[in-house]
Amino acid sequence: MLWDDVDLSIAISKLRQLQLEDGDLGASYWYRIELLLKDAERLRAENSQLSKELADCRLKLATPKVKKVHCPHRK
Questions:
Q1: What pTM, to 2 d.p., does this model score?
Q2: Which helix (H) or strand (E) holds 69?
Q3: Helix axis angle, 23-62 relative to 8-21, nearest 10°?
């Protein structure tokens, strides 16, 4: 299953609600979970960007380069 369609903002909003409801110890726990989700979201975006860059690099490497050769005898 691809996780690109999961909107983490909904989960983060719920975690903030839990922070308010659970007191100091619970709030600390839910805040750390929120940070983990934010890191996951950042890493997912970074992975997507790096995948695009890798695909571009592979395309460049697969494209044959034509080298112009200078022939001194041709005008």
A1: 0.62
A2: none
A3: 160
